[in-house]
From TrEMBL:
One of its GO terms (cellular component) is plasma membrane. It is a multi-pass membrane protein. It comes from Yoonia maritima. PROSITE patterns: ABC_TM1F, ABC_TRANSPORTER_1, ABC_TRANSPORTER_2. Belongs to the ABC transporter superfamily. ABCB family. Multidrug resistance exporter (TC 3.A.1.201) subfamily. This is ATP-binding cassette subfamily B protein. Its main location: membrane. The chain crosses the membrane at residues 32-54, 74-94, 140-167, 173-191, 251-273, 293-314.
Length: 596
């Protein structure tokens, strides 16, 4: 539970069925469908309620002289059966389709929101948990919208209609069969509440176990390298067992609930049969009347039993809805302004860091950046250097507005990033991240990710510039080779070159290189370096590098230490100053040992 995401902790304790109301915005567009389904439902419920009357007429006409009458009743009953079948089919189609439609919409809405969440969100919530909510929780909602809700409604109608018709048939018999209902309802509510809280606990545990599992599976190789498989298994087993135990408690409670309901209902029926047969003997009612009443009783009893079953389902879905709505309404810490300024075109690529103070949300007491003032001219190449943890990558995050500074601002061509729409200004930024992300697709599509509209020829040109063309051609299917999930079929250097090609293809006025060439061998580094140099000539470039050889040619080198800028200048002037940079340079250039 150590890594239990905060969102889980923040969840309010089990809410009522009313949580399902939150589904309304998703249902609203399909009003016609809902009305159609509702009509079909009322239609079938009405026919179901009429059928017992037909049954009475048939029974009471068994001994009648007029056989024609009897066969007429049979024909009517057949027609009703046909209508019932048709109505049920229509209802099933409309309701189930509605369920599928809505779940598809919810999945899209949740994913659509999650993909745009800032990194601060993913520091608190594990991706596996989000996935579990998109899959498991939406499946619960599917079962409700696609069946339970209509079962519930049908049974409510049958229950109400049945009770009214029973009262019309015989008040005395009705009282006798109906008394157990309040007695049944009471334990149902008590136990129902327990089922609800257990099912929420169960869902939370499932989400937690998926969260943990996806993290472990994504790092399977590291887990194996450190021979942690047994610990991983034990941890997963424990959460899974916990979730099984809570499911078992829930099932047991529901089993008990079901037993109680069935017993109560059938006891009432037996008692009623006893009385009813006396009434037939004394002529107070006919056999047909008894049969009709009997059928109503079974229908009403069945409705109560079905409702108790469905109640649990509804509660489970209410929990699921609550969790999904939470994802849909959670406020991101970084938000686009309500009325964003338009990015002034053409973007020249100037960047200004103005008295920037920043600490990561999860470590609010430790400043990652402390009073940064830096003005980068359009077209300038600036290298950020300094010891590990000095705040260089954080600067790259700030340029993309992954986080907001606590004090100060970041401006692009003089425009505060907070005044712009993130998806708009990011169009003018190309990034080669520290850990290149490769998707489970072909090499070609991975490069095209930089600019989806690029032609094949442009993709290949970018690959050539990033010194990736040769190795790509050597792959079994060339550019069409599938590179595996997260690019597992590629080497670290190859992944970096694809990431660089992607950035080249993007052709943006601002280029961010975060340790972009750290995994390259000397030869490819040389090739890539000249491509990067070429690229840097025409755009603003921010390079983070440990190897000072790669940044020697930068227009300006900015030295970071503990979140502050401690020096800046060209390579030669910094070496002449004799500070931290000179020490790092001496280590790297004299001894030929990398500072890493
Ligand atoms: N998401 C995060 N949440 C909390 N703290 C963070 C986060 N990312 C980085 N930090 C901290 O912020 C500081 C600056 O980190 P940053 O990644 O910017 O360093 P860096 O100079 O790029 O280091 P390196 O050269 O090792 O990549 C470090 O102390 C780091 O521990």
């Amino acid at each position: 539970m150590a890594r239990s995401p905060k969102v889980v902790e923040e969840r309010a304790p089990g809410k009522r069925i009313s949580a399902l109301k939150a589904l309304w915005p998703f249902l609203q567009p399909y009003k016609l469908n809902i009305i159609g389904a509702g009509l079909a439902l009322i239609f079938t419920a009405t026919i179901s309620l009429i059928l017992p009357i037909a049954a009475r007429l048939i029974v009471d006409n068994f001994s009648a002289d007029n056989g024609e009458m009897l066969s007429q009743h049979f024909t009517t009953m057949l027609i009703f059966a046909g209508l019932l079948a048709l109505g049920t089919a229509v209802r099933y189609f409309l309701v189930t389709r509605l369920g599928e439609r809505i779940v598809a919409d919810i999945r899209k809405a949740v994913f659509g929101r999650m993909i745009g969440m800032s990194p601060a969100f993913y520091e608190r919530v594990m991706t596996g948990e989000v996935l579990s909510r998109i899959t498991t929780d939406t499946t619960l909602i599917l079962s409700v919208v696609g069946s339970s809700a209509s079962i519930a409604l049908r049974n409510v109608l049958i229950f109400l209609g049945g009770v009214v018709l029973m009262l019309l048939t015989s008040v005395k018999m009705s009282v006798m069969v109906l008394w157990p209902i309040p007695v049944v309802l009471f334990p149902m509510m008590i136990l129902g509440r327990r089922v609800r809280s257990l099912s929420k606990e169960n869902q939370d545990l499932i989400a937690e176990s998926s969260g943990g599992a996806s993290e472990q599976l994504l790092s399977a190789q590291t887990v194996q390298a450190f021979t942690h498989e047994d610990r991983s298994r034990a941890k997963f087993d424990e959460v899974t067992e916990q979730s099984y135990r809570s499911a078992r408690r829930r099932i047991l409670t529901r089993a008990f609930l079901t037993a109680l309901v069935i017993f109560m209902v059938f006891s009432a029926i037996v008692m009623f049969l006893n009385m009813g047969s006396q009434d037939v003997r004394t002529g107070e009612t006919t056999e047909g009347g008894l049969v009709q009443f009997m059928i109503y009783t079974i229908m009403v009893g069945g409705a109560v039993a079905a409702l108790s079953e469905v109640w649990g389902e509804l509660q489970r879905a209410a929990g699921a809805t609550e969790r999904l709505v939470e994802l849909l309404t959670i406020q991101d810490t970084v938000q686009d302004p309500d009325e964003p300024e338009a990015v002034v075109a053409p973007v020249k690529g100037g960047l200004t860091f103005d008295n920037l103070h920043f600490s990561y949300p999860s470590r609010s007491d430790i400043p990652a950046l402390h009073g940064i003032n830096l003005d980068i001219k359009p077209g300038e190449t600036v290298a950020l250097v300094g010891p590990s943890g000095a705040g260089k990558s954080t600067m790259i995050h700030m340029v993309q507005r992954f986080y907001d500074p606590q004090v100060g601002s970041v401006r692009m061509d003089g425009q505060d990033l907070r005044e712009l729409e993130r998806s708009e200004f990011r169009k003018h930024i190309a990034l080669v991240p520290q850990d290149p992300v490769i998707f489970a697709d072909t090499a070609r599509e991975n490069i095209r990710f930089g600019r989806p509209a690029a032609t094949d020829a442009e993709v290949e040109e970018a690959a050539k510039a990033a010194a990736a063309h040769d190795f790509l051609m050597a792959l079994p299917d060339g550019y069409e080779s599938y590179v595996g999930e997260r690019g597992v079929m590629l080497s670290g250097g190859q992944k970096q070159r694809i990431a660089i090609a992607r950035a080249i293809l993007r052709d943006a006025p601002i280029l961010l290189l975060d340790e972009a060439t750290s995994a390259l061998d000397a030869e490819s580094e040389h090739a890539v370096q000249s491509a990067v140099d070429e690229l840097a000539k025409t755009r603003t470039t921010l390079i983070v590098a440990h190897r000072l050889a790669t940044v020697k040619k930068a227009d300006r080198i900015v030295v970071f230490e503990e979140g502050r800028i401690v020096a800046q200048g060209t390579h030669d002037s910094l070496v002449a100053q004799g500070g931290l940079y000179a020490r790092l340079a001496k280590l790297q250039f004299t001894d030929g040992v990398a500072a890493e």
